[in-house]
Amino acid sequence: MITRIVRWILFTLFLIFMLFPLFASLRFSVNWPKFTLQYYQDVFTDRLMWRSMLYSVEVAAGVVTISLVLIVLAAYWTSTRWPGARVALNFLSILPFVMPGVILVMSLIRVYSHFPIPIVHTPMMLILATSVGTFPYMYRAIDNAFRAIDVRTLTEAASSLGASPLFTLRRVIFPNVFPGILAGSLLAISGIFGEFTVANLLTGQAFMTFPVYVRWKGFLTARLGTTLAVFSFLLTVLLALAITMVTRKWSQAGEQRAVKAV
After folding, report:
1. What is the total count of domains within the chain?
2. 20 to 30 Å CA-CA from 102: which of 109, 129, 187, 253?
3. pTM > 0.85
4. Which of 216, 191, 190 is nearest to 203 (CA)?
Protein backbone atom coordinates (compact mmCIF):
# COMPACT_ATOMS: atom_id res chain seq x y z
CA MET A 1 0.00 0.00 0.00
CA ILE A 2 2.80 2.40 0.90
CA THR A 3 4.65 1.51 -2.30
CA ARG A 4 1.56 2.30 -4.35
CA ILE A 5 1.14 5.68 -2.63
CA VAL A 6 4.81 6.52 -3.27
CA ARG A 7 4.40 5.63 -6.95
CA TRP A 8 1.38 7.91 -7.30
CA ILE A 9 3.24 10.74 -5.54
CA LEU A 10 6.24 10.34 -7.84
CA PHE A 11 3.99 10.14 -10.89
CA THR A 12 2.15 13.31 -9.83
CA LEU A 13 5.42 15.16 -9.26
CA PHE A 14 6.61 14.02 -12.69
CA LEU A 15 3.43 15.31 -14.35
CA ILE A 16 3.78 18.65 -12.58
CA PHE A 17 7.40 18.89 -13.64
CA MET A 18 6.54 18.14 -17.28
CA LEU A 19 3.34 20.16 -17.60
CA PHE A 20 4.26 23.25 -15.62
CA PRO A 21 6.41 24.81 -18.42
CA LEU A 22 3.55 24.22 -20.88
CA PHE A 23 1.06 25.78 -18.48
CA ALA A 24 3.32 28.80 -17.94
CA SER A 25 3.76 29.24 -21.70
CA LEU A 26 0.02 28.94 -22.30
CA ARG A 27 -0.66 31.47 -19.56
CA PHE A 28 1.84 33.90 -21.05
CA SER A 29 0.49 33.46 -24.59
CA VAL A 30 -3.08 34.44 -23.58
CA ASN A 31 -1.81 37.43 -21.54
CA TRP A 32 -3.31 36.14 -18.30
CA PRO A 33 -5.17 37.51 -16.27
CA LYS A 34 -6.52 39.81 -19.00
CA PHE A 35 -7.03 36.78 -21.27
CA THR A 36 -6.88 37.53 -24.95
CA LEU A 37 -6.61 35.30 -28.00
CA GLN A 38 -5.24 38.12 -30.14
CA TYR A 39 -1.82 36.49 -30.45
CA TYR A 40 -3.33 33.21 -31.62
CA GLN A 41 -5.40 35.13 -34.14
CA ASP A 42 -2.29 36.92 -35.38
CA VAL A 43 -0.50 33.60 -35.77
CA PHE A 44 -3.26 31.74 -37.59
CA THR A 45 -3.98 34.62 -39.95
CA ASP A 46 -0.33 35.04 -40.92
CA ARG A 47 0.23 33.59 -44.39
CA LEU A 48 3.96 33.37 -43.74
CA MET A 49 3.30 30.92 -40.91
CA TRP A 50 1.30 28.59 -43.12
CA ARG A 51 3.96 28.88 -45.82
CA SER A 52 6.65 27.91 -43.31
CA MET A 53 4.51 24.96 -42.22
CA LEU A 54 4.22 23.89 -45.85
CA TYR A 55 7.99 24.14 -46.31
CA SER A 56 8.56 22.03 -43.20
CA VAL A 57 6.09 19.42 -44.45
CA GLU A 58 7.91 19.30 -47.79
CA VAL A 59 11.25 18.82 -46.04
CA ALA A 60 9.74 16.14 -43.79
CA ALA A 61 8.28 14.30 -46.79
CA GLY A 62 11.63 14.36 -48.59
CA VAL A 63 13.57 13.24 -45.51
CA VAL A 64 11.17 10.41 -44.67
CA THR A 65 11.14 9.17 -48.26
CA ILE A 66 14.93 9.14 -48.58
CA SER A 67 15.39 7.59 -45.16
CA LEU A 68 12.81 4.87 -45.75
CA VAL A 69 14.32 3.78 -49.04
CA LEU A 70 17.89 3.69 -47.76
CA ILE A 71 17.35 2.44 -44.21
CA VAL A 72 14.72 -0.22 -44.97
CA LEU A 73 16.89 -1.67 -47.73
CA ALA A 74 19.99 -1.51 -45.51
CA ALA A 75 18.21 -3.15 -42.57
CA TYR A 76 16.78 -5.86 -44.81
CA TRP A 77 20.19 -6.53 -46.38
CA THR A 78 21.97 -6.77 -43.03
CA SER A 79 19.27 -9.08 -41.67
CA THR A 80 19.44 -11.52 -44.57
CA ARG A 81 22.76 -11.19 -46.39
CA TRP A 82 25.38 -9.36 -44.34
CA PRO A 83 24.76 -9.35 -40.56
CA GLY A 84 28.25 -8.06 -39.87
CA ALA A 85 27.40 -4.72 -41.49
CA ARG A 86 25.06 -3.94 -38.58
CA VAL A 87 28.11 -2.93 -36.53
CA ALA A 88 29.05 -0.28 -39.08
CA LEU A 89 25.48 1.00 -39.28
CA ASN A 90 25.29 1.24 -35.49
CA PHE A 91 28.48 3.29 -35.52
CA LEU A 92 27.13 5.58 -38.24
CA SER A 93 23.92 6.08 -36.27
CA ILE A 94 25.94 7.54 -33.38
CA LEU A 95 27.89 10.08 -35.43
CA PRO A 96 25.06 12.67 -35.81
CA PHE A 97 24.84 12.90 -32.01
CA VAL A 98 28.52 13.84 -31.64
CA MET A 99 28.63 16.17 -34.66
CA PRO A 100 27.21 19.66 -33.97
CA GLY A 101 24.82 21.07 -36.55
CA VAL A 102 27.08 24.03 -37.28
CA ILE A 103 30.00 21.75 -38.19
CA LEU A 104 27.74 19.59 -40.34
CA VAL A 105 26.42 22.58 -42.27
CA MET A 106 29.83 24.15 -42.77
CA SER A 107 31.24 20.81 -43.96
CA LEU A 108 28.41 20.31 -46.44
CA ILE A 109 28.77 23.83 -47.82
CA ARG A 110 32.53 23.36 -48.14
CA VAL A 111 32.21 20.03 -49.96
CA TYR A 112 29.28 20.80 -52.25
CA SER A 113 30.33 24.33 -53.17
CA HIS A 114 32.40 22.75 -55.96
CA PHE A 115 29.74 20.23 -56.89
CA PRO A 116 28.68 20.33 -60.59
CA ILE A 117 25.01 20.65 -59.61
CA PRO A 118 24.33 23.89 -57.67
CA ILE A 119 22.56 22.57 -54.58
CA VAL A 120 24.18 24.73 -51.90
CA HIS A 121 21.66 26.88 -49.98
CA THR A 122 18.77 25.07 -51.69
CA PRO A 123 15.91 23.01 -50.24
CA MET A 124 17.54 19.86 -51.63
CA MET A 125 20.63 20.50 -49.54
CA LEU A 126 18.42 21.07 -46.50
CA ILE A 127 16.66 17.75 -47.09
CA LEU A 128 19.97 15.89 -47.43
CA ALA A 129 21.45 17.53 -44.34
CA THR A 130 18.33 16.86 -42.28
CA SER A 131 18.35 13.24 -43.44
CA VAL A 132 21.77 12.89 -41.85
CA GLY A 133 20.54 14.43 -38.60
CA THR A 134 17.46 12.22 -38.36
CA PHE A 135 19.25 9.03 -39.42
CA PRO A 136 19.70 7.72 -35.83
CA TYR A 137 15.99 8.00 -35.03
CA MET A 138 14.85 6.31 -38.21
CA TYR A 139 17.52 3.61 -38.12
CA ARG A 140 17.00 2.62 -34.47
CA ALA A 141 13.23 2.30 -34.84
CA ILE A 142 13.42 0.35 -38.10
CA ASP A 143 16.29 -1.85 -36.94
CA ASN A 144 14.40 -2.77 -33.76
CA ALA A 145 11.38 -3.67 -35.88
CA PHE A 146 13.53 -5.94 -38.04
CA ARG A 147 15.06 -7.56 -34.95
CA ALA A 148 11.60 -8.33 -33.58
CA ILE A 149 10.81 -10.69 -36.48
CA ASP A 150 12.66 -13.59 -38.08
CA VAL A 151 13.48 -11.90 -41.38
CA ARG A 152 15.66 -14.71 -42.68
CA THR A 153 13.00 -17.39 -42.14
CA LEU A 154 10.26 -15.27 -43.69
CA THR A 155 12.46 -14.53 -46.69
CA GLU A 156 13.37 -18.18 -47.20
CA ALA A 157 9.72 -19.22 -46.89
CA ALA A 158 8.63 -16.62 -49.44
CA SER A 159 11.46 -17.61 -51.79
CA SER A 160 10.49 -21.29 -51.57
CA LEU A 161 7.04 -20.28 -52.78
CA GLY A 162 8.49 -18.46 -55.77
CA ALA A 163 8.35 -14.87 -54.47
CA SER A 164 10.94 -12.43 -55.74
CA PRO A 165 13.05 -10.40 -53.25
CA LEU A 166 11.14 -7.23 -54.07
CA PHE A 167 7.78 -8.97 -53.62
CA THR A 168 8.98 -10.47 -50.33
CA LEU A 169 10.08 -7.10 -49.02
CA ARG A 170 6.87 -5.37 -50.12
CA ARG A 171 4.24 -7.96 -49.16
CA VAL A 172 5.87 -9.97 -46.35
CA ILE A 173 8.50 -7.91 -44.53
CA PHE A 174 7.08 -4.40 -44.87
CA PRO A 175 3.71 -5.13 -43.14
CA ASN A 176 5.56 -6.65 -40.16
CA VAL A 177 7.91 -3.69 -39.67
CA PHE A 178 5.35 -0.99 -40.46
CA PRO A 179 4.86 0.04 -36.78
CA GLY A 180 8.61 0.62 -36.47
CA ILE A 181 8.59 2.66 -39.66
CA LEU A 182 5.78 4.81 -38.28
CA ALA A 183 7.62 5.33 -35.00
CA GLY A 184 10.81 6.32 -36.80
CA SER A 185 8.91 8.67 -39.10
CA LEU A 186 7.30 10.35 -36.10
CA LEU A 187 10.67 10.88 -34.44
CA ALA A 188 12.13 12.24 -37.67
CA ILE A 189 9.21 14.62 -38.26
CA SER A 190 9.39 15.85 -34.67
CA GLY A 191 13.08 16.53 -35.13
CA ILE A 192 12.48 18.40 -38.38
CA PHE A 193 9.88 20.66 -36.78
CA GLY A 194 12.39 21.49 -34.06
CA GLU A 195 15.58 21.80 -36.10
CA PHE A 196 16.64 25.44 -36.25
CA THR A 197 20.42 25.51 -36.69
CA VAL A 198 20.71 23.51 -39.91
CA ALA A 199 17.68 25.15 -41.54
CA ASN A 200 18.78 28.65 -40.59
CA LEU A 201 22.35 28.24 -41.82
CA LEU A 202 21.52 26.42 -45.04
CA THR A 203 18.48 28.27 -46.36
CA GLY A 204 17.56 30.93 -43.79
CA GLN A 205 14.64 33.12 -44.76
CA ALA A 206 14.93 32.17 -48.44
CA PHE A 207 13.23 28.87 -47.56
CA MET A 208 11.88 29.64 -44.10
CA THR A 209 10.83 26.46 -42.33
CA PHE A 210 8.63 26.47 -39.26
CA PRO A 211 11.46 26.49 -36.65
CA VAL A 212 13.11 29.46 -38.37
CA TYR A 213 9.76 31.25 -38.46
CA VAL A 214 9.21 30.60 -34.73
CA ARG A 215 12.64 31.97 -33.86
CA TRP A 216 12.13 35.00 -36.10
CA LYS A 217 8.74 35.78 -34.54
CA GLY A 218 10.21 35.26 -31.08
CA PHE A 219 12.77 37.97 -31.74
CA LEU A 220 10.01 40.36 -32.80
CA THR A 221 7.52 39.66 -30.01
CA ALA A 222 8.00 37.30 -27.09
CA ARG A 223 4.29 36.48 -26.80
CA LEU A 224 4.05 35.50 -30.45
CA GLY A 225 7.05 33.23 -30.06
CA THR A 226 5.48 31.61 -27.00
CA THR A 227 2.19 31.19 -28.85
CA LEU A 228 3.97 29.43 -31.69
CA ALA A 229 5.81 27.20 -29.22
CA VAL A 230 2.50 26.13 -27.65
CA PHE A 231 1.03 25.51 -31.09
CA SER A 232 4.07 23.44 -32.10
CA PHE A 233 3.77 21.32 -28.97
CA LEU A 234 0.06 20.67 -29.51
CA LEU A 235 0.73 19.81 -33.15
CA THR A 236 3.35 17.25 -32.11
CA VAL A 237 0.98 15.70 -29.57
CA LEU A 238 -1.80 15.38 -32.16
CA LEU A 239 0.63 13.83 -34.63
CA ALA A 240 1.79 11.33 -31.99
CA LEU A 241 -1.79 10.38 -31.13
CA ALA A 242 -2.69 9.96 -34.79
CA ILE A 243 0.28 7.70 -35.52
CA THR A 244 -0.40 5.70 -32.33
CA MET A 245 -3.99 5.09 -33.43
CA VAL A 246 -2.90 4.10 -36.93
CA THR A 247 -0.28 1.72 -35.52
CA ARG A 248 -2.78 0.13 -33.16
CA LYS A 249 -5.36 -0.36 -35.90
CA TRP A 250 -2.66 -1.79 -38.17
CA SER A 251 -1.63 -4.28 -35.47
CA GLN A 252 -5.24 -5.28 -34.79
CA ALA A 253 -5.86 -5.75 -38.51
CA GLY A 254 -2.73 -7.91 -38.74
CA GLU A 255 -3.90 -10.08 -35.83
CA GLN A 256 -7.31 -10.51 -37.44
CA ARG A 257 -5.70 -11.53 -40.73
CA ALA A 258 -3.53 -14.04 -38.88
CA VAL A 259 -6.54 -15.53 -37.10
CA LYS A 260 -8.47 -15.86 -40.37
CA ALA A 261 -5.47 -17.49 -42.00
CA VAL A 262 -5.35 -20.08 -39.21
Report:
1. 1
2. 187
3. no
4. 216
